[in-house]
Design a protein that fits this description.
Blueprint: H1 22-47, H2 72-80, H3 83-98, H4 100-111, H5 116-137
Helix pairs in contact: 2-3, 2-5
Amino acid sequence: MHGVTELKFEDEPEDKPQHFNFFPDHILTELMIGLTLMIVLSALATIFPASMGPKANPLVTPEVIKPEWFFYVSFRWLKLFSLTFAVLSTGFIVAAMFLWPWIDKVLRKVTGNEDISVYIGIIATFLLVGLTVWEAAVAH
């Protein structure tokens, strides 16, 4: 009353097996179909390669490339200075940020000013904002 009833034809013999073996019958069928599709798709991709336009030249960067806004500072810094100086100075700035607690201690001793880090932070913030706005304002 409940469940799946197998369909039987009138001329079907009674002693015929009522199941289809998963292994090897079903596996071999799926394997043949899968391999045939892979061969056909590989042949089509080889004969008719997909193209979306002219091939890219990795040695030429278009002038209209513009990074996300949070990379504007680095982008402008690289444009302002030579590659060697820009990369080395960026590494120096990152190293200075990690070593800032010790640099701050030395600056306080040398200058005698307890707020020297605040002034340097204000200058750095204006520099970051200025370079970001400058890069954003330039027409590309």
